[in-house]
Specification:
With 468 residues, the protein is mostly beta strands. The protein is built from six helices and 30 strands. The strands form seven sheets. Strands 2, 3, 4, 5 and 6 form a five-stranded antiparallel beta sheet that branches. Strands 7, 8, 9, 10 and 11 form a five-stranded antiparallel beta sheet that branches. Helix 4 packs parallel to helix 5. It starts with 8 loop residues before the first helix and ends with a strand.
Length: 468
């Protein structure tokens, strides 16, 4: 009977191509002949290409792996393993030197381009955005005026050499205060000539309130209600084609009642449909706006104004995640009444959703979004200043949540990780050196390609902290 070492090299390479990064490194440590096999460059290209389909690797999303040397490919694989093992610890450790950069005053972090050291910042005072290369420690573009306040952002669109994100902005000018929906694009294929472009811009009447930005490769939009709320107010969807600028308004029968006020509401796009999620206590309500009502170029007869009657949608239950009656306002269990000498213990509740090609109860394929799991975290979201967002961020991959939490007078940096195979979520406390001072942090970012957490503090510093 043949032993493993006697198998033909081409057969062993076929087997290794389906192995994990950890298994390949273990295989290479067995003997000299196995190590020689592990030095085949095409093997690492194949395995890293497959790995990046499951979770990020420490390169830009569209990096051409075939242009990289064997040593570079192996270094990427080791970095990926080191990051995964470190972030799996209850308290991941800092690995390597922390980079500190002095920024201009009053800069807010809008997004970081995954796998790079490029950051887009917004200045409230000037109403402009600018791109910094933290590796160089300086701005690499000229400021571009967009608006005075960032109200909401969409998930990003990551294309080769370009990263785009839609932002809902508030603009202040001689005409007054009004909302504006824009798409910002950073072109970074040539790192010596990074550029910011405004590829879409649309202003809104001040008589309406807008929120929940969504964007895909062709459509961008928001949810809308009138500022003068009435008892029978309904949510409307306003969508635009990013390239033809065609606008559609879709009135729905979704009531804007106590559910969005007590809970949360948001939007997402999948398979050309737009989904509206309303989270309320221990229930979720999921609504679908079909692509046939949206202004895609393949849908030239799409009506400018339409009505979408969704009726009573099935309620998605999450069990009873918190004791008593759980609400999204930051209160504790109703049984813990201070009158009885038991202090209220705030908790946060995070729910993970994912895309699915088949909706339960349908015999045919119906792309949708489905609930995966939830997790409760003691404490409140922290904000070091009243004018900043509360400190919670989802990286581009959407598999993790980075947040700053105040619990029992202690401010912590936490990472919540979605374990997709097990359909569970875990909480990890990230170590941060004392000289940073979490009580001064007002902005954050997570590059889960490279394993770098970025913190902005009120003293004007950016700290890039490596965890791999």
């Amino acid at each position: 009977m043949s032993t493993l070492v006697q198998l033909p090299a081409d057969l062993l390479l076929l087997v290794l191509a389906d192995c994990s990064l950890a298994d390949i490194f273990a295989f290479s440590a067995v003997c000299h002949s196995f190590r020689s096999l592990s030095l085949v460059r095409s093997l690492w290209i194949t395995v890293l290409t497959r790995t990046r389909c499951i979770h990020p690797i420490p390169t830009p999303t569209h990096q051409d792996l075939t242009t990289l040397s064997l040593n570079h490919l192996r270094s990427l694989a080791l970095h990926t393993l080191r990051l995964h093992r470190n972030l799996s610890l209850p308290e991941p450790k800092i690995i390597g030197p922390i980079k500190s950069v002095q920024l201009d005053a009053n800069l807010d972090l809008v997004f970081q381009i995954p796998g790079t050291e490029l950051y887009l910042f917004h200045c409230r005072a000037s109403g402009s955005v600018v791109c910094w290369d933290v590796g160089l420690g300086k701005a690499v573009t000229k400021p571009l005026h967009v608006g005075n306040r960032v109200l909401d952002v969409s998930p990003g669109e990551d294309l080769p050499g370009m990263f785009s994100m839609s932002c809902l902005l508030q603009r202040i000018d001689d005409a007054g205060i009004w909302d504006s929906l824009v798409v910002l694009r950073v072109s970074h294929a040539d790192r010596t000539n990074v550029q910011i472009d405004l590829t879409f811009q649309q202003g809104f009447a001040n008589s309406n309130f807008h929120w929940a930005v969504f964007m895909n490769s062709e459509i961008v939009g928001v949810l809308r209600i009138p500022r003068n709320l009435l008892p029978d107010t309904r949510i409307a969807i306003v969508a635009f084609n990013r390239f033809t600028h065609k606008r559609v308004t879709i009135d729905t029968d979704i009531p804007y009642d106590e559910r969005p006020l007590v809970g949360h509401s948001g939007s997402s796009s999948y398979s050309n449909d737009v989904f509206i999620l309303i989270e309320c206590e221990d229930l979720s309500f999921r609504y679908r706006c079909p692509a046939s009502l949206l202004p895609y170029r393949s849908n030239p007869n799409c009506p400018v104004d339409s009505r979408l009657n969704l009726g009573d949608v099935p309620r998605i239950g999450w069990g009873t995640p918190l004791p008593g009656r759980m609400r999204y306002t930051q209160i504790g269990p109703l049984s813990a009444d201070p009158a009885y000498g038991v202090p209220l213990k705030p908790q946060m509740h995070i729910r993970f959703w994912t895309r699915s090609d088949k909706e339960e109860g349908f015999a045919h394929s119906t792309p949708t979004i489905v609930p995966v799991c939830f997790i409760n975290i003691p404490g409140d979201l922290w904000s070091s200043a009243s004018h900043t967002w509360q400190l919670m961020l989802l990286p581009h991959s959407g598999r993790q949540v980075l947040l700053v939490v105040k619990d029992d007078e202690e401010i912590k940096l936490l990472l919540v990780r979605l374990q997709t195979e097990k359909k569970t979520a875990t909480v990890h406390r990230l170590n941060v050196p004392s000289f940073i001072g979490m009580d001064h942090v007002y902005g954050l970012s997570l590059d889960d390609h490279r394993g770098v957490v970025t913190l902005l503090d009120t003293r004007g510093f950016l700290f890039a902290i490596p965890y791999a």
